[in-house]
Structures are given as C-alpha cells and as structure tokens.
Design goal:
The structure is a single chain. It contains four helices and seven strands. It is of the alpha/beta class and about 160 residues long. A four-stranded parallel β-sheet has the order 4-5-6-7, covered by helices on one side. Helix 2 runs parallel beside helix 3 and helix 3 crosses helix 4.
C-alpha cells in the first residue's frame, strides 16, 4: 500500500489550489466573481461546496446577514421550514438583485411532511414562503425507519 501524493489523490490536489475533475473553482477564467469551490453533479448542474446556513437565525437576522454573505461570495443558502425564516430568506434573495439562477437554495422537509399528500402540500407551502418557483435541493431532515420514503406512494406497511 503506497502513500497518496497530490498527483494520485484528487483530494490532496485541492490542498495545492488545484481542482479535481468534476469540480471547479469560482473566480477562475470561466467565472468572474467569488472564489467558492463548486461540485458538478451527474446532471451537469453545479452546487457550491460551502453553503450559508440560517439555522437559529431570526427573520431579522437573516435579512441583516444574508446580504453580507452574498457580498463575500456565498451563493448556496441552507434553510428549512422548521427554522421559521424561509420568508426572510426569500426577501433577502429578492433584495440582493442576484439572479435566482445564480443561487442554490436548499431547504428541508421534516418527518411529519413525509406522507405523499402532505409532502406535496408542504413543498408548495415552502415555495410560497420563499416566493420562488423552484428549490435546488430538498432534503429529508432527520430521516428514519420507514419514513425515509417521503412522497412515495405505497411505501411502508401494507402499501
């Protein structure tokens, strides 16, 4: 078993300010602003490697601090319905003037939202709170047991 070197290990290459294949560094010749590392997903879309989370922030704090995050280059925002600040995230995004397609918005569903009809309703409610047409990444917050099949008809017992 040999020792990994920057030439053989793509993660070590990132330590030398090079970006492995499938990843790209913002701020290079193909990006004008910021310097956030992004990952290319299997569908070709990109996700910023680092996101700005708003857990435990009040709506007023979100609206005060998200502009600062945008100013230093954050484009991935992580929120959740249970944080009670999705409306503030939406307002801060609109106020930023940054085109929506340049942002990556993550939010979450909690276990009570996992049944199919509730899942549909709660996704629509989240979109209304954010005042957005789409969410880039929807996570199952605290998945467990049979509930990991959110929004899937016929899951669980007797289904």
């Amino acid at each position: 078993m040999g020792v990994d070197t920057p030439a053989s290990d793509p993660w070590l290459k990132t330590q030398q300010n090079t970006v492995p294949e499938g990843r790209r560094q913002r701020g290079t010749e193909d990006e004008e602003e910021g310097n956030m590392l992004e990952f290319t997903m299997n569908d070709g879309r990109r996700i910023p490697a680092v996101g700005y989370g708003v857990f435990l922030m009040t709506p007023a704090e979100v609206e005060a601090h998200l502009p600062e995050a945008f100013a230093v280059g954050y484009r991935h925002i992580d929120t959740a319905n249970a944080y009670f600040n999705e409306k503030a995230v939406g307002r801060a995004v609109r106020a930023s003037g940054i085109p929506r397609e340049e942002l990556f918005i993550t939010t979450k569903l909690f276990p009570q939202s996992y049944p199919l009809e509730q899942c549909r309703a709660d996704i629509d409610a989240t979109l209304r709170r954010l005042d957005m047409d789409y969410i880039d990444l929807l996570l199952l917050h605290q998945p467990y047991g049979e509930r990991v099949h959110a929004g899937v008809e016929g899951h669980g017992r007797g289904g």
